[in-house]
Design brief:
three-stranded mixed β-sheet, 342 residues, 11 helices, globular, single chain, 19% strand, seven-stranded parallel β-sheet, alpha/beta, 14 strands
Length: 342
C-alpha cells in the first residue's frame, strides 16, 4: 500500500479527502495543528495522525511517504488579511519547504492544491485557462501564486509536481464551513428564508464540490507523469461557472421553502470565469453541482446533524483561539490555572 502525507488534513477539504484516500486503498499520514479537533477524521487502521505545524516540518515526517498532498493553508481572504505574516509563512514558505523535503526524501509525487482566486478580476468575456495571466488581489491569492512558483521548478524525472487551481469549494464536509459562498447562502436561506448576497450579483465565480476537488487530488496520484509533471490544472467544470445572482436564484429554487435574496455590502470586484478543458481532457470530470451541494447541506441542517457554530466560520474561530490563548497566558501560573503543578 502506498502512503500519502496530507498536510492540513483536519480542515474543510482534508476531512473529506482523507476518508476518500483510505477508501481508495492508501495509507494516510494526516498532519495538522487540528484547530478544529481530531475527532473529525475517522478511526482507521491505515490512518496515522500527527499533530504538528507545517512551519516546523521535519524530514522524519516524510519517512516512508510515496505521495504528498499539501493542503495546509490559512484559508479564505478575510483570514489572510488579518494574519498576513502567517499566511505567507504557511501558504507559501511551508509548502515550498515541504516540497523540497519531499524531493530529498524520494517521494514520487507532490500535489499542491492552489486556488483559481489568483485570476482575480477579469473582464466578463474572458475565460481563463492555465496559460492566462494571473491577477491575485488578496494576500491569500498572492501567497498561493508564490507557492506555485516555488514548487513547480522542483519537478524532475524522479519527482512529479502537480498544481491544482481549485475553484471556490462548496458542499458538506465534517469540518464544515459556512463562510463559503454556496454554503453560506444555503444556511441563510434555511435559517431565516433570507439568502444573503453581496452586490451586485453579476460577478462570475467558478465553483467545485469538496468531494470533487478531493477526487481530483486523488486522480493526480495515478495520472501519467509525462502528462502532468510540472503542470497547472484548473479544477472545476463549466457547469459550475456561475454568476452569483443566478446562483442565488438556483439555491432559492433548490430549497423546499420560500426564500428571498437580501443584498448587502459594496460590489465585489473579484470576478473571473475559468476553463477546465485541460483536466477534463486528461480524464477527470466534476460530478456535482450547486444544486447537489445546497440540497445535501439543507438536509443535514433539517436533520439536526449540522448547524452553524463559531467553528464553522474560519476567521471567527481563529479569533476565538487567539483570544483564549492570550487569556490563558495571562492567568496561567505554575503550569496551571486553578489546579497547579506542586
Amino acid at each position: 500500500m502506498e502512503r500519502v502525507l496530507v498536510t492540513g488534513a483536519g480542515g474543510y477539504i482534508g476531512t473529506s479527502l482523507v476518508p476518500m484516500l483510505l477508501a481508495a486503498g492508501y495509507k494516510v499520514r494526516a498532519l495538522d495543528r487540528f484547530f478544529f479537533g481530531r475527532q473529525l477524521l475517522p478511526a482507521h487502521e491505515h490512518l496515522e495522525q500527527i499533530r504538528a505545524d507545517s512551519r516546523r516540518l521535519e524530514p522524519a515526517h516524510l519517512d516512508g511517504v510515496d505521495h504528498v498532498i499539501d493542503l495546509v493553508a490559512i484559508s479564505n481572504d478575510p483570514s489572510g488579511e488579518l494574519f498576513q505574516d502567517a499566511t505567507y509563512q504557511i501558504n507559501f514558505e511551508s509548502r515550498v519547504h515541504c516540497a523540497t523535503l519531499a524531493r530529498e526524501a524520494g517521494v514520487k509525487r507532490y500535489v499542491l492544491p492552489s486556488s483559481c482566486s489568483i485570476y482575480g478580476f477579469q473582464e466578463p468575456e474572458v475565460v481563463c485557462d492555465e496559460t492566462h495571466p494571473t491577477n491575485p488581489l488578496t494576500t491569500y491569492a498572492k501567497a498561493n501564486e508564490m507557492a506555485e512558483n516555488g514548487v513547480l521548478p522542483l519537478a524532475d524525472d524522479g519527482f512529479c509536481v502537480v498544481v491544482l487551481r481549485q475553484a471556490t469549494v462548496y458542499g458538506y464536509s465534517p469540518r464544515m464551513r459556512f463562510d463559503l459562498a454556496i454554503n453560506g447562502m444555503t444556511y441563510g436561506a434555511w435559517k431565516s428564508g433570507v439568502l444573503p448576497l453581496m452586490r451586485d450579483g453579476s460577478q462570475w465565480r467558478p465553483m467545485v464540490h469538496v468531494r470533487d476537488t478531493a477526487s481530483a487530488q486523488i486522480f493526480m496520484l495515478k495520472a501519467p507523469a509525462a502528462k502532468v509533471n510540472g503542470q497547472l490544472f484548473n479544477v472545476g467544470s463549466e457547469a459550475n461557472n456561475y454568476q452569483l445572482g443566478p446562483l442565488a436564484e438556483l439555491i432559492c429554487k433548490t430549497l423546499p421553502k420560500d426564500v428571498r435574496i437580501d443584498w448587502y455590502g459594496d460590489a465585489d470586484h473579484r470576478s473571473y470565469r475559468v476553463s477546465f478543458d485541460k483536466i477534463e481532457k486528461l480524464g477527470w470530470k466534476a460530478r456535482l453541482t450547486a444544486h447537489d451541494g445546497a440540497k445535501e447541506i439543507y438536509e443535514k441542517l433539517e436533520s439536526g446533524a449540522l448547524d452553524k457554530t463559531t467553528e464553522t466560520i474560519t476567521l471567527d474561530w481563529y479569533k476565538t483561539l487567539t483570544k483564549w490563548h492570550r487569556i490563558i497566558k495571562e492567568v496561567e501560573l505554575h503550569g496551571g490555572i486553578i489546579e497547579i503543578g506542586l
